[in-house]
Design brief:
The complex is a heterodimer of chains A (287) and B (320). With 287 residues, chain A is mostly helical. Helices cover 74% and strands 0% of the residues of chain A. The longest helix of chain A is centred in the first third of the chain and has 37 residues. The two termini of chain A are 18 Å apart. In chain B, strands 1-2 form a two-stranded antiparallel ribbon. In chain B, strand 1 and strand 2 form a beta hairpin. Chain B is an all-alpha fold and 320 residues long. The chains are: A mainly alpha (287), B mainly alpha (320). The interface between A and B is large, with 36 and 45 residues.
Chain lengths: 287, 320
């Protein structure tokens, strides 16, 4: 009998774990909703300062009130969620690409190459991430979504690289890789067309869990004022208004919804990620 | 074992050099140089150029790098042009606050982690264990700054139990009992917020370690010899599981650093993390450079310490 494919195993575990399934449906719905609504909403209209309507509590006109610039909090919440998700995806994708390639090459070749590459990785791992990213963010001349995600990527590819490397070390000893080598396949071919497909489930799992971490990191940086500018709000931008003690104490409607949304998003992504992680370990599977 | 320690030390040195090069390059990218804000704007460009020449700012980068490192080794981190004082002096004003905050956080982290981890591992799959596992699950998903905001909102503003900014109540003289109590009172909430989030990975590690060890042969043997339940746990299992945890604190330093940046911002606590954010907004780059270098070295040394301690308590690492 043919054993089920990696994707099929992942999917079966997801369906079996009700919490993860609900989380996944929630994530899909919120992504569709947020991207759909923000097509209708005009970002420039929402971030336009209106001094006649500053710090208004929730009312019929503004469902979640307004911030210190008279900007609609609900509209910012929608656009903020979109931007946060977008940057989360971008950083996860970029760091995944770098990390997987780095890990595969180090693990497959082993020996001195592996040794040198791992020392480089150790060095990156030890850098004070938040500080370095903040410094680069404030130095980069043309600062936008892309450069921001590239800066974040430059210092966050190490986790996945280390994981993939240890997997690749085991994988290259297996018969299929050895046989392919004996038949004269090039290293490039073995790495990317034979070893890589065999570790897809691990990559998917790690990237899902990284997505949650990256959304958290981005909102943290925006909270400190070193993420998105106010004209491109993210969920962290809304939270950054809470750095003002007055806002924190008396105007909960500005920051509390964003805080709850970040928490729920991160929990949902983690629920899915944990279910997938269980699926990759046959001893822990429920399905 | 000495071989391991020497080898580990040999990795540390290039790490520090690499860090210093990175920080130096960052400093070069920053606008302005050591002269910015130091001289009268009315001074003619020719004289400025002369001063530049004399200070060695026109030298090639590797000579500047050498001079910069030589300066640091003598304790000269440059001048803060906003605070109008030596960076070393500025840092020495703030370093104590961050040191105490980090120390109290570490202590809380272990005070919380050890009993929770042991309970959860010993009585695994009971209701109690499920509660603790639930807490670690939530703790992993919660970003530190959101939790800290929540804590300061509830306990600082709504209930008013704790002060919401500063490191000590103004007007108290250092050395008195009141001063110490006020200091601790200002530390308590930030440290607790950080510890409650930082502790979850240690709790989880301890739990899985104990659950694993419980099924090992030597525990079965100990039970068969008639060792009491408390003896099995205290003498056999905990000795194996607690020691690695003691080594974690060095690695915690890296996460403590990013933690203090958020925590000091939220609690208005005048430490190095807050100083970092202040000076980067003021574009006072000599301070920023010094802080990144200092925190970077602290994480490198922390990891070194952890690796060495771990190799002492766990011989398996040495053999590898």
């Amino acid at each position: 009998m043919k054993s089920p494919s990696a994707l099929r195993v992942l999917w079966r575990e997801l369906v079996r774990d009700k919490l993860a399934l609900v989380s996944l449906i929630f994530l899909v719905l919120i992504t569709v909703a947020v991207f759909g609504i923000s097509l209708v909403l005009d970002q420039r209209e929402i971030v336009k300062v209106d001094l006649f309507a500053i710090n208004e509590p929730p009312s019929d006109e503004f469902i979640l009130g307004t911030d210190y610039g008279g900007r609609d909090v609900f509209g910012q919440l929608i656009i903020g969620t979109r931007n946060s998700l977008l940057i989360g995806f971008l950083v996860t994708l970029f760091s995944g690409l770098i990390g997987v390639t780095f890990g595969l090459v180090a693990g497959y070749f082993g020996g001195h190459i592996d040794n040198i590459m791992m020392r480089i990785l150790d060095f990156f791992l030890i850098l004070p991430f938040i500080m370095i990213v903040i410094v680069f963010v404030s130095l980069v001349p043309s600062y936008n979504t892309l450069t921001f995600s590239l800066i974040m990527t430059a210092f966050s590819w190490m986790g996945i690289a280390r994981l993939i490397r240890s997997k690749a070390l085991q994988e290259k000893e297996l018969d299929y890789a050895q046989a392919s080598k004996t038949l004269g396949s090039s290293d490039f071919k073995i790495i990317f067309t034979q070893v890589l497909p065999n570790i897809t489930s691990l990559i998917i799992v790690t990237m899902t869990l990284n997505l949650a971490a990256n959304i958290g990191l981005e909102s943290g940086l925006s909270f400190l004022g070193f993420g998105f500018p106010e004209t491109t709000p993210s969920l962290g931008t809304l939270l950054s208004y809470a750095r003002n003690p007055q806002t924190l104490e008396f105007r909960w409607w500005i920051w509390a919804p964003a805080a709850v949304l970040i928490l729920v998003l991160m929990l949902a992504v983690r629920n899915v990620g944990e279910a997938l992680r269980r699926a990759t370990d046959s001893r822990q599977r429920r399905g | 074992m000495w071989k391991f320690i020497v080898r580990r030390l040999l990795i540390t040195l290039p790490q520090i050099i690499l860090l210093s090069v990175l920080v130096f390059l960052m400093a070069q990218m920053m606008p302005g140089d050591a002269l910015t804000g130091q001289v009268d704007p009315n001074v003619s460009p020719e004289i400025k150029e002369q001063i530049r020449e004399r200070l060695g700012l026109n030298n090639p980068w590797y000579i500047q790098y050498r001079d910069w490192v030589a300066g640091i080794l003598q304790g000269d981190l440059g001048q803060s042009f906003r605070f109008k004082m030596d960076v070393t002096e500025l840092l020495s004003q703030r370093i104590a606050n961050t040191f105490w905050l980090s120390l109290v956080t570490l202590i809380f982290t272990y005070i919380i982690a050890v009993p929770l981890g042991i309970t959860s591992g010993r009585y695994n799959d009971t209701l109690l264990d499920q509660g603790i596992t639930g807490y670690t699950y939530l703790g992993f998903a919660t970003p530190l700054f959101i939790f800290a905001l929540f804590m300061v909102w509830v306990f600082g503003y709504q209930l008013g139990w704790f002060p919401t900014s500063g490191s000590v109540q103004p007007g108290l003289t250092p050395g008195t009992m009141e001063y110490v109590i006020s200091k601790f009172n200002h530390l308590l909430l930030p440290a607790l917020s950080m510890a409650l989030i930082a502790t979850v990975s240690t709790v989880q590690y301890l739990r899985s370690e104990i659950v694993d060890t419980k099924q090992k042969d030597f525990i079965v043997t100990a039970r068969a010899k008639g060792a009491s339940e408390s003896r099995v746990y205290n003498r056999h299992i905990l000795r194996n599981s607690l020691l690695p945890i003691a080594a974690f604190f060095g690695w915690e330093i890296t996460s403590l650093i990013s933690g203090t940046i958020f925590i000091e911002q939220i609690f208005g606590y005048p430490g190095m993390g807050a100083l970092f954010l202040e000076t980067i907004l003021l574009r006072d780059y000599s301070v920023v450079t010094a802080l990144v270098l200092l925190f970077g070295i602290a994480s490198i040394l922390g990891a070194l310490l952890s690796d060495i301690i771990l190799s002492l308590v766990d011989p398996r690492i040495r053999i590898k």
